[in-house]
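Lecture 7, part B: from sequences to assemblies.

Below are the input chains for today's worked example.
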Amino acid sequence: MNMNRIKALFAVSLFSFSVNALAQETVIGIANIGPHPALEQGINGFKKELAAQGYVEGENTKYIYGDASFTPSMIPQMLSTIEAAKPALILTITTPVSQAALSSVKNKELPMVFLYASQPVEAGLVPSWRHGSAQFTGVTGANDSEVTLTFAKKLFPDAKKFGVMYAPGETNDIVAIREMEVAAKKLGLEMMKVGLDSPSEANQRAQMLSGVDFFYALASNNIQSAIPAIASVTDRYKIPILSEETELIRKGMVAVSYAASYGISGEHAGTMAAQILKGKKPSELAPMKPSLDDYAPLISRKRFAELGIAIPDSFRDCACFIDD
Amino acid sequence: MDFLDTFLNLVPMGFTQGLIFAMVALAVMIPFRILNFPDMTSEGTLAFGGCVTAKGLILGLEPTLALACGVAAGFLGGMLTAFIHEKIKLNSLLCGILVLSMLYSIDIRVMGQPNTALFAYPNLFNYLPNDTLVNRILLLASVNIILIGILVWFLSTQHGMAMRALGSSHAMARAQGISVKTYVLVGLGLANCIAGLGGGLLAQNQGFADVNMGFGALVNGLASLLLGEALIGNRTILRQVAAPALGSIVYFQLISIALAWGFQPSDLKMVTALFVIATFVVLASRKSKPGAAAARAV
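Predicted structure of the full complex, as structure tokens:
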């Protein structure tokens, strides 16, 4: 290939680029850690909200999606691929991806919105909960354990002790556990925590749960993928599972779920993204946690019956039963 | 044209990653090729080095000093593997796996949490006159070249020769009066202090340390080592030592190509593996001798 031809190629690429600009298409990058149903719900919520705000996929908006198949060493290159598409904004999903975006994205003017980074201040993404950084703001998606445990007390009025599993290597889990310990003490509940390094150990570790009144399943990957194994043990002990995730209740493993849905967190991120695309600066938008209105309970009558647990009368009129 | 555009954008990032993970590949090469002691500790010492470096930075150490702590941590990790192997005569691979799972817990203890952000702390790259991606690449490349230089020099000293003798045969080395125990201990320490250095540089480069940062590093390292050996062989010491570094750079650029090509993210691992296989096939077909370096199994 001679020099002229290379120049011609560059000219063509520049040209195609300017055509894009003329069409007024908004390009939005989505950087994910890996394919996961819960994270996809968030992405769908994000796109849905942006569409409602006038950024419709396939019409005037194009999404560039990338993920790292859960491999940390691939995150920087994945982010560079997205940046190469010249997006107007990038949605970064999870803490490691958001942190890597801070160092790997070369354009320091490019606004970014994080989703499911549970500790954005400690992770160095934003200076405080009051406002975003020059480049970053977003939605944590972390559940408020006090809200969830208050709900649990209503549903299991006689409960004194509950069990919870967490992955000691996951920041999100550690934060959740730390907050939950405080909330449990405040509500007069005894908490039994069991570490779980990989889902393959779940069956064995779950044996330690005998004697608790309910099991609290965190929304994290490690725990959620272990629920089938945990349920096989807790069923034997007649322990109901309360999950922060709605996915498994419909598959008949979980008795009750109470969560700010991933979709709703994604919608909040979409609202923020739309505000930024319309001219606001990330530093003007405070990072968000799910609010009380975002929580919705789902209860499986069938599972309660199977475990021989009565549902309190106060829930009689609840529109939350999945098997009605 | 999107391909070229995207690829050119990815090249520098691929170099940074490739140069950092080159150190893991070096750390894999030493036990597998020099010591004849298959070892997987480097996946753990990469994260260990990174986490200790992060802790050092948070405690207010100079970036270089923090990095030195990370290197020392890697050294200890490697020695621990050799020590366990020596004391209870456990299979070397199993020792490595045990140590790397221990290090996971230690990492969390060291940092007090699984992830530490370092954006607000000074890092090694602040010493550069101008902190651009290109300068970072130049710095990382110099570190690699210096490392390779030191290793080549060391392996031609008396002690280095003794270590290489282990690679040929442990029994033979013992018969020559070489203390196998000591050389495995120091050799593994040496290998893993390079992995620790890689971890420390990775943490400073990406601005955070995470207990999971080593995940998959060993596979990358092995692939890089074999790829490098397929490219330049391992007939001289220089080639043997430079091979993993070169392999790592090529490996990460293969990932860049796969990414720029626009493959589905979920297919990327498959595509990268196929690229590596294709590279081997091309190289093997060009070599007249069957069973050349490329075919040498781990």
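Note for the exam: Chain B is about 75% helix and 0% strand. Keep this in mind when comparing with the next example.
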